[in-house]
Amino acid sequence: MDRTTQYYAAQGFEKPYRWAYNDTAPFAALDRPLSEMTLGLASTAATYHRGELEPRRVVPLSNDSLPDSLYADDLAWDKQATHLDDRRSFFPIEVLQELASQRIIGAVGPRSYLLPTEYSQRKTNTEDGPILLDHCREDGIDAMLLVPL
Amino acid sequence: MSLISRLLEHEEIPTVIVGSARSIVEHCGVARFLFTDFPLGNPFGIPYDRDMQESIVRQALDLLEQASEPKTTRVAPFDWGSDQSWRDNYMRVRDEDRETLRLMGEERRLRRIENKRGKT
Lengths: 149, 120
Prior knowledge:
Oligomer: heterodimer
Largest interface: A-B, 71 and 75 residues
Low-confidence stretches of chain A: none
Shape of chain A: globular
Helix content of chain B: 40-55%
Distance between the termini of chain B: 31 Å
Helix content of chain A: 10-25%
Strand content of chain A: 5-15%
Number of helices of chain B: 5
Order of helices and strands of chain B: HEHEHEHH
Structural class of chain A: alpha/beta
Number of strands of chain A: 5
Shape of chain B: extended
């Protein structure tokens, strides 16, 4: 976090970003084995080359017709050291589907979810989060694998 | 994504995060976190390494099922390989880069102003 703060300070953004901090965390225990649960997958990537200032929104995607590529050029990840050409390196839906076929998990939900990374914690907490929660309930999601880039 | 995790856990949907920004995720405080010590961008491992990717998914599911208390972090037993230079390079501010970074910041601020004008 210190290095990120210094990096943006060097760009002239002198007011440092305040990451959310909490002493404690909520915890939902599993009420049955994973082999009986429907799992969802969420990522901070997008289906298109999203611009830095473009409006962002939660996008549910049918797992039956997922694109081969997802993008996140607008996000801060290590573009010198690696790339996003292999979707499975950050969005492993095929592995989850294989584990469902082996009954290690009960099922994979009908859709996956792309969530924007927002500067505004308020927007995440009061807009995007509740939208995702509605999608989870519509899709019968029992547990979620969350993957920030 | 850490805030999303907290919201879902509040609503009785268990979550596990797989990611490489350990300090940020742990600062926020989440129920279950599988830390993969890689450059940001490929939390399931080296591109096209299917065995590593499957193994990390399995470890995430084990953590989902086995964690008994919040703020449980496990570390995946993989590394990025012999070239560890990314650790030092990512977002490092070197004196010779300061002018470039200053110009990048100015450009970003200009784009934001133009974007706001376009909306009004």
